[in-house]
Amino acid sequence: QVQFAESGGGLVQAGGSLRLSCAASGSTFSTNTIGWFRQAPGNEREWVARISSGGSTLYADSVKGRFTISRDNAKNTVYLQMNSLKPEDTAIYYCRILTGNFLGPGNWGQGTQVTVSS
């Protein structure tokens, strides 16, 4: 069973930066596409960014140019560097394996809370 552990969240002022980490176990991590998602209070969970096994990346329009997703397969870890943070980025951030445009094996982890103050 794939398990995800997200970390690196915190409280930051608008314009600041954070780097999130996603560690996965129980899977052939390096061969999978990994996606970051977020859920703000009262909102549905939304996709933020994805990175393929080969390193190709895609971003939601709301974060393009501010967030950067990367991976270190040797450490079974995917990162999300978040710059120029805005209050609307406040959410719990999660990672998952993606199979095409669908969620892959595993369940949602506990996520990591990001709070951006204005």
Tell me what the structure shows.
The protein has 118 residues and is mainly beta. 0% of the residues lie in helices and 53% in strands. The protein contains no helices and 11 strands. The chain has strands at 3-7, 10-13, 18-25, 33-39, 46-51, 57-59, 67-72, 77-82, 91-99, 102-103, 112-117. Strands 2, 4, 5, 6, 9, 10 and 11 form a 7-stranded mixed sheet that branches. The protein is globular, with a radius of gyration of 13 Å.
Radius of gyration: 13 Å
Mean pLDDT: 94
Structural class: mainly beta
Biggest β-sheet, characterized?
7 strands, mixed
DSSP helix fraction:
under 10%
The N- and C-terminal alpha carbons lie at a distance of 40 Å
Measured by DSSP, the beta-strand proportion falls in over 45%
**Continuous helix count:** 0
Run of helices and strands: EEEEEEEEEEE
Shape: globular
Strand count: 11
Uncertain stretches: none
Architecture blueprint of SSEs:
Blueprint: E1 3-7, E2 10-13, E3 18-25, E4 33-39, E5 46-51, E6 57-59, E7 67-72, E8 77-82, E9 91-99, E10 102-103, E11 112-117
Parallel strand pairs: 2-11
Antiparallel strand pairs: 1-3, 3-8, 4-5, 4-9, 5-6, 7-8, 9-10, 9-11
Notable characteristics:
4-stranded antiparallel beta sheet; 53% strand; mainly beta; 118 residues
The gist of it:
This protein is an all-beta fold and 118 residues long.
